[in-house]
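Support request, priority: normal
Reporter: lab tech (M.K.)
Component: structure prediction queue

Hi team, I submitted a job for Probable phosphoglycerate mutase from Nonomuraea maritima yesterday, and the status page still shows it as pending. I've pasted the exact input below so you can check whether something in the sequence is tripping the parser. The sequence length should be 199 residues. Please let me know if I need to resubmit or if it's stuck on your end.
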Amino acid sequence: MTRYLYLARHGEATADESGLTEAGRRQARLLGERLRDVPLAAIHHGPLPRATETARLAAEQLPGVPVHACEPAGDYVPYVPARDELPAESADHFLGFVDQFPQEEVRPDLAKEAVARFTGPSDGIRHELVVTHNFLIAWLVREAMDAPAWRWLGLNNANTGLTAIRYAPGRPPSLMFCNDLGHLPEELRWTGFPPEMRA
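Reply from support: The job had stalled in the queue. We restarted it manually and it finished. Here are the results:
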């Protein structure tokens, strides 16, 4: 049967990433309100405080939906490409970006587990929300589009930007929408992006 996977980046975090800013808390509540009419079976979230708090605040708007912390929904680098996989003109940029992360944050094993746990058709029609981080959303969108493994790089999501992917038997995954900010007022949109990249 069909699975509908909703992916949301956590709300705007404090500078020390110990939780959410007031704007981030508002974003999380509005995310929950946005999903009130979706028959969610579960909310999954990564273990870090910013994802945990976002999931909790969203869930307050969604009574009765169970909330689960899980490591595959966490914040990690899903894949590090080799230079020859990358376009020559952007190889230095992308390799410089991934090189800034310590080796223990490179977790292709968790990325594989996330794909197995959250994607593909289900036993019945199922709607699930994963409150996570930018890299995992990019990885799962790349996976749905059957793009090269390196192509998670350069896919970015704003805080509480909402993405939905449909997995139906006998069909390729369908990206229904990506980084949708329609639930946020203008002043809460595009946080998590450098100022020059905000729409």
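The mean pLDDT is 96. The longest strand covers residues 3-9. Let us know if anything else looks off. Ticket resolved.
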